[in-house]
Amino acid sequence: MADAPRFCRPAAYDAFVAQLSTLETTDSLVRAAVAVSMHELDGVLADGVERSLDELADNVRRKVNSVTPSALVARLHEVMFDERGFSGNTDDFYSPENSYLSRVLESRRGIPVTLSLIYKAVAQRLGLMARGINAPVHFLTAVESDSNWMIVDPFHGGRMLTKKEVFDQLDQHASAPVDRSEELLATATHGQWLGRIIRNLELVFARVNRENDRMAMRELQTLLAGMI
Fold first, then answer.
1. What is the reported pTM?
2. Coil, helix or strand for 31?
3. Among 156, 49, 158, 54, which residue's Cα sits nearest to residue 105?
4. Are 139 and 133 in contact (CB under 8 A)?
Protein backbone atom coordinates (compact mmCIF):
# COMPACT_ATOMS: atom_id res chain seq x y z
CA MET A 1 0.00 0.00 0.00
CA ALA A 2 1.34 3.45 -0.89
CA ASP A 3 2.45 5.75 1.91
CA ALA A 4 0.44 8.89 2.56
CA PRO A 5 1.78 11.82 0.50
CA ARG A 6 3.59 14.71 2.14
CA PHE A 7 3.07 17.22 -0.67
CA CYS A 8 0.47 15.93 -3.13
CA ARG A 9 -3.21 16.44 -2.39
CA PRO A 10 -4.51 13.17 -0.94
CA ALA A 11 -7.48 13.03 -3.33
CA ALA A 12 -5.16 13.41 -6.33
CA TYR A 13 -2.73 10.87 -4.95
CA ASP A 14 -5.44 8.29 -4.23
CA ALA A 15 -7.05 8.78 -7.66
CA PHE A 16 -3.63 8.32 -9.25
CA VAL A 17 -2.92 5.12 -7.31
CA ALA A 18 -6.31 3.70 -8.30
CA GLN A 19 -5.37 3.69 -12.01
CA LEU A 20 -1.90 2.18 -11.86
CA SER A 21 -2.93 -1.46 -11.83
CA THR A 22 -4.77 -1.04 -15.16
CA LEU A 23 -2.57 1.63 -16.70
CA GLU A 24 -2.17 -0.37 -19.92
CA THR A 25 -5.69 0.72 -20.88
CA THR A 26 -6.31 4.12 -22.45
CA ASP A 27 -9.15 4.81 -20.03
CA SER A 28 -6.84 4.39 -17.04
CA LEU A 29 -4.15 6.50 -18.70
CA VAL A 30 -6.68 9.31 -19.16
CA ARG A 31 -7.93 8.96 -15.60
CA ALA A 32 -4.40 8.93 -14.20
CA ALA A 33 -3.60 12.09 -16.18
CA VAL A 34 -6.72 13.72 -14.73
CA ALA A 35 -5.59 12.64 -11.25
CA VAL A 36 -2.32 14.52 -11.76
CA SER A 37 -4.28 17.71 -12.44
CA MET A 38 -6.34 17.22 -9.28
CA HIS A 39 -3.32 18.27 -7.23
CA GLU A 40 -3.93 21.86 -8.37
CA LEU A 41 -7.42 22.02 -9.82
CA ASP A 42 -10.59 21.99 -7.74
CA GLY A 43 -13.68 20.20 -8.93
CA VAL A 44 -12.12 18.39 -11.89
CA LEU A 45 -13.52 14.91 -12.48
CA ALA A 46 -12.41 12.16 -14.82
CA ASP A 47 -16.07 11.59 -15.80
CA GLY A 48 -16.27 15.14 -17.15
CA VAL A 49 -13.11 14.72 -19.19
CA GLU A 50 -14.40 11.45 -20.61
CA ARG A 51 -17.69 13.10 -21.59
CA SER A 52 -15.74 15.75 -23.50
CA LEU A 53 -13.78 13.05 -25.30
CA ASP A 54 -17.01 11.20 -26.08
CA GLU A 55 -18.50 14.40 -27.50
CA LEU A 56 -15.53 14.89 -29.82
CA ALA A 57 -15.81 11.31 -31.05
CA ASP A 58 -19.57 11.63 -31.55
CA ASN A 59 -19.03 14.77 -33.61
CA VAL A 60 -16.63 12.89 -35.86
CA ARG A 61 -19.09 10.00 -36.31
CA ARG A 62 -21.81 12.38 -37.44
CA LYS A 63 -19.61 13.50 -40.31
CA VAL A 64 -18.48 10.16 -41.71
CA ASN A 65 -20.13 8.47 -44.65
CA SER A 66 -17.69 5.56 -44.51
CA VAL A 67 -16.22 3.74 -41.53
CA THR A 68 -12.96 2.93 -43.28
CA PRO A 69 -9.92 3.96 -41.23
CA SER A 70 -8.85 6.54 -43.79
CA ALA A 71 -12.29 8.21 -43.72
CA LEU A 72 -12.36 8.21 -39.93
CA VAL A 73 -8.87 9.71 -39.73
CA ALA A 74 -9.79 12.41 -42.22
CA ARG A 75 -12.91 13.39 -40.26
CA LEU A 76 -11.05 13.19 -36.94
CA HIS A 77 -8.55 15.75 -38.25
CA GLU A 78 -11.33 17.88 -39.69
CA VAL A 79 -13.11 18.07 -36.34
CA MET A 80 -10.18 18.22 -33.95
CA PHE A 81 -7.83 20.49 -35.87
CA ASP A 82 -9.80 22.37 -38.54
CA GLU A 83 -13.05 22.99 -36.66
CA ARG A 84 -12.04 22.88 -32.99
CA GLY A 85 -8.56 24.27 -33.58
CA PHE A 86 -6.56 22.09 -31.21
CA SER A 87 -2.88 23.05 -31.38
CA GLY A 88 0.14 23.85 -29.29
CA ASN A 89 0.14 26.71 -26.81
CA THR A 90 3.07 28.61 -28.24
CA ASP A 91 2.09 31.81 -26.43
CA ASP A 92 2.30 30.32 -22.93
CA PHE A 93 4.11 27.02 -23.35
CA TYR A 94 5.24 26.78 -19.72
CA SER A 95 1.82 27.19 -18.13
CA PRO A 96 0.98 24.16 -15.97
CA GLU A 97 -2.52 24.20 -17.44
CA ASN A 98 -1.08 22.83 -20.68
CA SER A 99 -0.57 19.57 -18.79
CA TYR A 100 -4.13 19.35 -17.43
CA LEU A 101 -6.49 17.48 -19.75
CA SER A 102 -9.62 19.32 -18.66
CA ARG A 103 -7.99 22.68 -19.33
CA VAL A 104 -6.60 21.57 -22.70
CA LEU A 105 -10.04 20.34 -23.74
CA GLU A 106 -11.50 23.75 -22.78
CA SER A 107 -8.81 26.01 -24.26
CA ARG A 108 -7.85 23.66 -27.13
CA ARG A 109 -4.25 24.58 -26.43
CA GLY A 110 -1.67 22.34 -24.84
CA ILE A 111 1.71 20.69 -25.09
CA PRO A 112 2.58 17.71 -27.30
CA VAL A 113 2.06 15.02 -24.66
CA THR A 114 -1.45 16.12 -23.63
CA LEU A 115 -2.65 16.92 -27.13
CA SER A 116 -1.41 13.49 -28.22
CA LEU A 117 -3.36 11.85 -25.41
CA ILE A 118 -6.56 13.57 -26.46
CA TYR A 119 -5.92 12.47 -30.05
CA LYS A 120 -5.35 8.86 -28.98
CA ALA A 121 -8.39 8.77 -26.71
CA VAL A 122 -10.72 10.13 -29.40
CA ALA A 123 -9.20 7.94 -32.13
CA GLN A 124 -9.74 4.81 -30.08
CA ARG A 125 -13.35 5.78 -29.41
CA LEU A 126 -13.75 5.71 -33.18
CA GLY A 127 -12.28 2.21 -33.43
CA LEU A 128 -8.92 3.42 -34.72
CA MET A 129 -5.57 2.12 -33.51
CA ALA A 130 -3.43 4.93 -32.11
CA ARG A 131 -0.22 5.02 -30.10
CA GLY A 132 2.18 7.53 -28.62
CA ILE A 133 5.69 8.05 -29.99
CA ASN A 134 8.17 8.63 -27.20
CA ALA A 135 10.41 10.93 -29.22
CA PRO A 136 12.81 13.12 -27.27
CA VAL A 137 11.94 16.79 -26.82
CA HIS A 138 8.70 16.54 -28.81
CA PHE A 139 6.09 13.83 -28.13
CA LEU A 140 4.14 12.60 -31.16
CA THR A 141 1.39 10.14 -31.95
CA ALA A 142 0.65 7.70 -34.73
CA VAL A 143 -2.58 6.32 -36.13
CA GLU A 144 -3.17 3.24 -38.29
CA SER A 145 -5.00 3.91 -41.53
CA ASP A 146 -5.54 1.25 -44.17
CA SER A 147 -2.72 -0.93 -42.78
CA ASN A 148 -0.25 1.95 -42.67
CA TRP A 149 0.92 3.84 -39.59
CA MET A 150 0.89 7.60 -40.07
CA ILE A 151 2.83 9.88 -37.75
CA VAL A 152 0.79 12.82 -36.48
CA ASP A 153 1.91 16.00 -34.72
CA PRO A 154 -1.08 17.30 -32.74
CA PHE A 155 0.96 20.24 -31.45
CA HIS A 156 1.24 21.57 -35.00
CA GLY A 157 -2.41 21.20 -35.91
CA GLY A 158 -2.40 17.49 -36.76
CA ARG A 159 0.31 17.73 -39.38
CA MET A 160 1.17 14.35 -40.95
CA LEU A 161 4.91 13.70 -40.99
CA THR A 162 7.29 11.39 -42.79
CA LYS A 163 10.10 9.91 -40.71
CA LYS A 164 12.56 12.32 -42.32
CA GLU A 165 10.32 15.25 -41.39
CA VAL A 166 10.12 13.94 -37.81
CA PHE A 167 13.90 13.84 -37.49
CA ASP A 168 14.26 17.27 -39.09
CA GLN A 169 11.70 18.62 -36.62
CA LEU A 170 13.49 17.00 -33.69
CA ASP A 171 16.69 18.71 -34.83
CA GLN A 172 14.89 22.05 -34.62
CA HIS A 173 13.40 21.39 -31.19
CA ALA A 174 16.71 20.14 -29.80
CA SER A 175 18.69 22.93 -31.52
CA ALA A 176 21.16 20.24 -32.56
CA PRO A 177 21.22 17.22 -34.86
CA VAL A 178 19.69 14.05 -33.41
CA ASP A 179 20.57 10.49 -34.35
CA ARG A 180 18.46 9.09 -37.18
CA SER A 181 17.58 6.09 -35.03
CA GLU A 182 14.32 4.16 -35.11
CA GLU A 183 14.66 3.89 -31.33
CA LEU A 184 13.78 7.57 -31.10
CA LEU A 185 10.41 6.75 -32.65
CA ALA A 186 9.59 3.91 -30.25
CA THR A 187 6.05 3.44 -29.04
CA ALA A 188 5.48 5.11 -25.68
CA THR A 189 4.30 2.82 -22.92
CA HIS A 190 1.51 4.32 -20.89
CA GLY A 191 3.90 4.61 -17.97
CA GLN A 192 6.30 6.63 -20.10
CA TRP A 193 3.43 8.76 -21.37
CA LEU A 194 2.21 9.55 -17.88
CA GLY A 195 5.76 10.06 -16.67
CA ARG A 196 6.34 12.73 -19.31
CA ILE A 197 3.25 14.63 -18.21
CA ILE A 198 4.47 14.58 -14.62
CA ARG A 199 8.05 15.43 -15.54
CA ASN A 200 6.87 18.42 -17.53
CA LEU A 201 5.03 19.71 -14.49
CA GLU A 202 8.11 19.18 -12.33
CA LEU A 203 10.09 21.38 -14.71
CA VAL A 204 7.33 24.00 -14.90
CA PHE A 205 7.05 24.25 -11.13
CA ALA A 206 10.83 24.41 -10.75
CA ARG A 207 10.95 27.36 -13.16
CA VAL A 208 8.68 29.44 -10.91
CA ASN A 209 9.99 28.17 -7.56
CA ARG A 210 6.83 26.29 -6.63
CA GLU A 211 8.85 23.80 -4.63
CA ASN A 212 5.99 22.09 -2.79
CA ASP A 213 4.19 21.49 -6.07
CA ARG A 214 7.38 20.18 -7.65
CA MET A 215 7.77 17.78 -4.76
CA ALA A 216 4.14 16.69 -5.18
CA MET A 217 4.94 15.71 -8.76
CA ARG A 218 8.07 13.96 -7.57
CA GLU A 219 5.89 11.88 -5.23
CA LEU A 220 3.71 10.82 -8.14
CA GLN A 221 6.75 10.08 -10.30
CA THR A 222 8.25 7.90 -7.58
CA LEU A 223 4.95 6.11 -7.13
CA LEU A 224 4.69 5.51 -10.87
CA ALA A 225 8.23 4.14 -11.06
CA GLY A 226 7.54 1.71 -8.25
CA MET A 227 4.23 0.34 -9.50
CA ILE A 228 4.59 -0.21 -13.23
1. 0.96
2. helix
3. 49
4. yes
User: Between β-strands 130-133 and 87-88, what pairing exists: parallel, antiparallel or unpaired?
Assistant: unpaired
Q: Please tell me the distance from the alpha carbon of residue 131 to that of residue 186, in angstroms, as a whole number.
A: 10
**Distance in angstroms (rounded) separating the CA atoms of residues 14 and 219:** 12
* pLDDT above 90 coverage of the chain, percent: 86
Phi-psi region of 176 (alpha: psi -120 to 50; beta: other; left: phi over 0): beta
SS3 labels along 157-224: CCEEECHHHHHHHHHHHHCCCCCCCHHHHCECCHHHHHHHHHHHHHHHHHHCCCHHHHHHHHHHHHHH
How far apart CA 188 and CA 179 sit, in angstroms, is 18
> What's the whole-number mean pLDDT along residues 46-67?
95
In this structure, the strands spanning 148-153 and 140-145 are antiparallel
Q: Dmax over Cα atoms in the chain, in whole Å?
A: 53
pLDDT tens-digit readout, 15-47: 999 999 999 999 999 999 999 999 999 999 999
Per-residue pLDDT tens digits for 143-199:
999 889 999 999 999 999 999 999 998 888 878 888 888 888 999 999 999 999 999
